[in-house]
Amino acid sequence: MKRRILFATALILFFCASALALDAKYTKEYAEDLLKTVDKSLYPAVYKSVIIMTTVRAGRNPLSNTFESLSKGADKSLMKITAPARDKGKKILKNGDNLWMFMPDISRPIRLSAKQSFMGSTFSNEDLASSGWEDNYSAGITDQKGALILLTLTAKKKDVAYAKIDMWLDDTTKIPTEMTYYGLSGKAIKKLYMSNIQKIAGIMRPVDMKMDDLIEEGSYTQVKLESMEALDSLPEYTFDATQMGR
Amino acid sequence: MKKEMIGIALRNVLKNKRRSILNMLTFAVSVFVILLGFGMIKGQFDAIYTRMIDLRTGHIKIYNKDYPAVKSTMPLDKVIDNPDKVLSAIAATPHMVAASQRIIHAGIISNSKKKMGIVINGIDMEKEKKILTAYDNVEGSLLPKEGAHVLCGGALANMLGFKPGSGLLLFSQTSGNMNNLVDADVSGVYSIGFDAMEKAEVYVPLAFARQFLDMDNKATEIIIRLDNADYVPEAKKYIQQALAKGFPQLAVVDWKEENADLFELAKAKMGSFKAMAVVFLFLSFFIIVNTMTMSVYERTAEIGTLRAIGFDKGYIMQMYILEGLFLSVFGVILGWILAAPLIYYLNVHGLVLDVMKTASSTSLPMTDVLKAINTPSDWILSGVICVISGVLGAYFPAKMAADTNIVNALKRGVR
């Protein structure tokens, strides 16, 4: 019995010590400010990029797509598939929380459901469409390992995709390295790893990303940023669903 | 005169026995095929409807009135807000065996190595047992009142290697569209001999579904079983009246509306069978045209003699049409006699199927015994169709016989 009490006390002390190990500057306000800046710091305001996305699922052939993307801010982007040949010409438009897909054969845009998987990948459409983290999540710093801090995002409301997101990021560069997405029950659903940090379009950012599907062992989607170029501006009609056929 | 004509027509039928037997047999086969086809298709769909009622739909369902239009997307925002109150309001429905609230939503099930898309059915097991037969053959145990337990189909269990007690992951999105993933276990594995359903439908306790999908005290549907499908119109009317005042946002749907796509399929299948029956009838028609035309050629001189001694064109024509009528009537009677034992057997005993083996991979649920359903109207219809076809088939040769030139016919001499 005494041993159990001792063990429990030690455990409590360990957790208290861990909590106390956080730098004093990591306040709630600091975390909220960090959340606002982290997403914006990864991308130029207006840019053009080329992305290669490869999805691997157990027992299936890997699925690879190359996208040319035009983006404005965090909530507007137009992705055009350039490879493989069978998908060439397909376009995906993200405008706020709305997503459309244009297929040359159908010649009119189709609204995509947020719940669907994005092009058969581990990402869901809502993973791409969701923006405005600061509106939907409250942030707190819950752990620290050297320069890496754990930013824990907790959903403010019930109509967001994830109940909680754990984001490990480098406090000096403000670049995330790992993100874990949790469901309502508190169980982890997906895990995103970001690596190979390079200066691209004048910004230090991870070039490689890998999203693990925690529901299906060995399934993941790898995203490689091939190029990124900052632009002065893009006309608004670029992100108009009615103009996708042009 | 009429008696004479009938006599000649009958004599002609009997004179060319081989030809007449061939004609009669084609009509007999047509009658046989029509009776068998109609009976089996009606029987098959009756069995499918019964299975659908037993496995999926019950006799009546209650939905939010906006739900049926978007049912295929299984939304959680078009729901029944106070299902307990609705159940109280319909408690006195005539002939009702049981009613139960449910939550239906799309999800993913995984053994952590492989995942599959499924439909999650949140059910009240105790009540559902009285409504559906899907839970009659279960390895392991039925669902408890609450907890993260899953009753899955045999086909899904085979694909994911599940046994009673196996651990699994269940994923879905809540009513607020938030992702949710939980650990659960397999309480039991049900077998119904219908792969499509066994692969797709899993059952969980209603209380767990509410918690997992963040549904508070709501349901997506209420399912109702009556003691007999014949009482559906009466019970439906009662429920509609009972809900009209307090629950105007709800819609009452019977099993026929619920299985509307199946009725379309039955219509399509009956349509293709009708096309096949037309081919058989055309064959009979063609054979009778052919054989009677040959008969007209053979009896040209005889026709000429009859015409020469005063029989008019109308008489000759009627004589040949009567011959066609006799052939088809005898053919129909022969067909009925030949079909009767088999049709009786199929209507009374049916074909015994090993549903677990033979029908499990079909896209529609089958019963253990597939019975044909033939009504007296099927017998009459098959006979009438064949007789009309026989008379029509005889018309053209009859016309040809009536138009025979008397002098030319007599030149050939009577054989």
Descriptive overview:
The complex is a heterodimer of chains A (246) and B (415). Chain A is α+β, with helices and mostly antiparallel strands. Helices cover 17% and strands 44% of the residues of chain A. A 13-stranded antiparallel β-sheet of chain A has the order 6-5-4-3-2-1-13-12-11-10-9-8-7. In chain A, strand 11 and strand 12 form a beta hairpin. The model of chain A has no long low-confidence stretch (mean pLDDT 86). Chain B is α+β, with helices and mostly antiparallel strands. In chain B, strands 1, 2, 3, 4, 5, 6, 7, 8, 9 and 10 form a ten-stranded mixed β-sheet that branches. Chain B has a two-stranded antiparallel sheet with strand order 11-12. In chain B, helix 10 packs parallel to helix 14 and helix 12 packs antiparallel against helix 14. Chain B is elongated. The two termini of chain B are 25 Å apart. The mean pLDDT of chain B is 88. Chains A and B meet through loops of A and strand 6 and strand 7 of B.
